[in-house]
Write a structure and sequence with these properties.
With 254 residues, the protein is α/β, with parallel strands linked by helices. It has two domains: 172 residues, Rossmann fold (3-Layer(aba) Sandwich); 64 residues. Helices cover 33% and strands 23% of the residues. It has seven helices and ten strands. Strands 6-7-8-3-9-10 form a six-stranded mixed sheet, with helices on both faces. It has a four-stranded antiparallel sheet with strand order 2-1-4-5, with helices on one face. Helix 2 runs parallel beside helix 4 and helix 6 packs across helix 7. It is globular, with a radius of gyration of 18 Å. It starts with a strand and ends with a helix. It binds adenosine-5'-triphosphate and magnesium ion. Adenosine-5'-triphosphate binds next to strand 2 and helix 1.
């Protein structure tokens, strides 16, 4: 069952003293069970840090993250994560990499499900290849399959389509929307594409530059399923313009 996320008063600093970096400041965010939320913001504003905090991969300096009401202190079951770089195990084949979360959770082999997922992302025939034999975009798609293989109720995705060509990216957007509509997961998606955020999300969180704070949250009321003809919808256009304006206005401070 999908679960809500509550981020309450979260700050994160790396290091101590003079050289410390304040990555996030006072983040409050509620994500409902089954909601699709996208996060956009300048490079270095703390998006990946926020995702890692929600995934229990690190602890906040202040504040709390809760999933389904329980404070997150470590990675829990039921969460699929797609990292900004695919981090595949080089000695495992594509199939074995996708199998990894099932091995960790001692769930047994699922060759049929893995074959279906690989076909879904256009990687049929690469089951027995090793990561070094794949392009960057293909590796990203393997990482997406690995995140989906346990059918997690919460999907955390950090720029999952960054290395894909424009058309494959659009196809993956539509597939992700379909999977989300069919399975009712809660999704947090970080993206550098304003169009992608509006295409997919119920709400788009726009962050300010470091220290990352939530600048504004924009509701996207466009009907679903959306497709790339939705781009012509005036609401689509005005949401994109609003996000662009906010990101421009906040400037870059790196
Ligand atoms: N493990 C770490 N140790 C020290 N500093 C870190 C660490 N992780 C992130 N930072 C710093 O925190 C800030 C936010 O980093 P983060 O990776 O969250 O940004 P981001 O918004 O994901 O950027 P991008 O869009 O480029 O991926 C950066 O200034 C970065 O240098
Ligand atoms: Mg990042």
């Amino acid at each position: 069952m999908a679960q809500p996320i509550t981020v309450h008063g979260v700050s994160k600093a790396f290091g101590v003293g003079k050289g410390s970096i304040e990555a996030l400041r006072d983040i409050d965010l509620e994500v409902s069970a089954g909601e699709f939320v996208a996060i956009v913001g300048a490079s270095g504003c703390g998006k990946s840090t926020l995702l890692r905090l929600v995934g229990g991969l690190m602890e906040p300096t202040n504040g709390q993250v809760r999933i389904g009401g329980k404070v997150v202190r470590e990675p829990g079951p039921g969460i699929g994560i797609v990292f900004q770089t695919p981090v595949l195990l080089p000695w495992r084949t594509v199939q074995q990499n996708v199998q990894l979360p099932l091995d960790i959770q001692r769930c047994g082999k699922e060759p049929k499900r893995i074959a279906e997922l690989l076909a879904l992302v256009g990687l049929r025939g690469f089951e027995h290849s090793r990561p070094y034999e794949l392009s960057g975009g293909m590796q990203q798609r393997v990482a997406l399959c690995r995140a989906l293989v346990t059918n997690p109720s919460l999907l955390l995705m950090d720029e999952p389509f960054g290395a894909l060509d424009a058309l494959t990216r659009e196809q993956m957007n539509l597939e992700l929307q379909r999977v989300w509509m069919e399975t009712g997961k809660t999704v947090l998606l970080i993206t550098h594409s304003i169009t992608e955020s509006v295409m997919l999300a119920d709400r788009v969180v726009v962050m300010s530059p470091r220290p990352g704070r939530i600048q504004e949250i924009i509701e996207i009321g466009l009907p679903r399923p959306r497709d790339f003809s939705s781009l012509r919808d005036p609401e689509f256009h005005s949401a994109c313009e609003r996000i662009r304006m906010l990101m421009n206005a906040s400037g870059f401070v790196e």
